[in-house]
Design goal:
The structure is a homodimer. The first copy, chain A, is mainly alpha-helical and about 260 residues long. Chain A folds into two domains: about 160 residues, no CATH class; about 35 residues, no CATH class. In chain A, helix 2 crosses helix 3, helix 2 packs across helix 6 and helix 3 packs antiparallel against helix 4. Chain A is globular. The N and C termini of chain A lie far apart (about 55 Å).
Amino acid sequence: MIVKHLTRRQILGPIGIAAGSCVLSSCLSESASSPLDKKPGFPWPYDKLDPQITAERAYNDHRKGHCMYGAFVSVISQLAERYGEPYSSFPVGMMRYGAGGAAGSGSLCGALNGSAALIGLFVKKEEDMKLLIDELFLWYEQTELPTYIPERPALDAKIPTSVSNSILCHISVTKWCKMSGNKTFSKQQKERCARLSADTAAKTVELLNAHFAGEFSAAHEFDDEVKTCRSCHTKGSDRSDSRGKMHCRICHSSLAVDHP
Amino acid sequence: MIVKHLTRRQILGPIGIAAGSCVLSSCLSESASSPLDKKPGFPWPYDKLDPQITAERAYNDHRKGHCMYGAFVSVISQLAERYGEPYSSFPVGMMRYGAGGAAGSGSLCGALNGSAALIGLFVKKEEDMKLLIDELFLWYEQTELPTYIPERPALDAKIPTSVSNSILCHISVTKWCKMSGNKTFSKQQKERCARLSADTAAKTVELLNAHFAGEFSAAHEFDDEVKTCRSCHTKGSDRSDSRGKMHCRICHSSLAVDHP
């Protein structure tokens, strides 16, 4: 463990090497030629965090900047308090854009977008980064959420759980509202999304902790239906005419009628 | 215009005020209480950029880190070369996560994710940020793309255009492949996405230039079909049971059979 309040140069100077990905205690930076390549180190070092503390922060930060902001800040703020720079200078306010699947568009769930950004920030090797994000996304698609119970809830009520079968905000939120009988944009939906952001941030920290401890292995996989679709349509298959890893029949629901 | 190579503290010290959003020549920073609130300024200042130069950069940067990275770096790198910090310290490598709709998941197009992140970084007032992202997303959904012709193409071929009707990578890519007769993950598809990233980054700079010149007005709106759907399903409507702004019938294609 390093001491607190090191400067950016002290943390990320020409001390170490960047090979794949690193934790604060073991490795550091790199250097190259253009202004952006001369930046003080990428990936940024990660240090083990507590999932429960991270969840509480994400829940509370959700109120300040919504889902992507909450998930992202829950992690960066802990590292900023522990080490100062460069974490304390990250312009976290930018992450407000991810709310409601990016400016309310309903695409990628903001909690997932912010969590994937964290994984991208800490894990340099693309293959590892993808494995962690794949696991996070499959967990989100297949798990009854939210499960997090806040210490000081904004809305002190029992929040029903649902399985989204989708990483898209539009589907995740709409399914939950339909199942629970709540309207979109209601205080119940906002509370559900705040707790979901807490769950997602905690899961992200679990995955990062495992990765940097050399203990990560995927616990989720595509379900059988998706595997069947992918056997014909994805990269290297017969048709190779589709791109993506999202659950198929959540949108392609009418395929059974005339599909092989 | 400020001189080059100012330090982060010089640019973002206690000189100015942050009211809504700002350009380098007119306003600067703010201060507050927690470690992250003490960060050296948010939003980051924007300065007018050339769309064509931005497009060329996004196209070339696409090769280094894919779509989200290409779109984001095309802008940050120009400001880093012009002003140094804080732009030159942004850990741009994190943006690789957005490739293929986030780790290949096929959700939000990475070029849009990176461009929305830029808008989030420069535009503080949430209402303005959303208006700019809405316009970018509608432009992307409704426009024949790609139109950008690279100076030094990686693949020197005529690239067909298509209208995606969607901000999702899965649909945008799959529709283009189907229309053009190319396979996903082919060199043609990669070239199409590199040029699309260039178009998207150029459009983002056009929007930011207009916003900071006080000249922005939306040129795109929901099509009539989407307006009809939203009249019953979105916030404040009779049912208020859906969230999102994406084109509806691109997924809800079988609604005509039994829908009012």
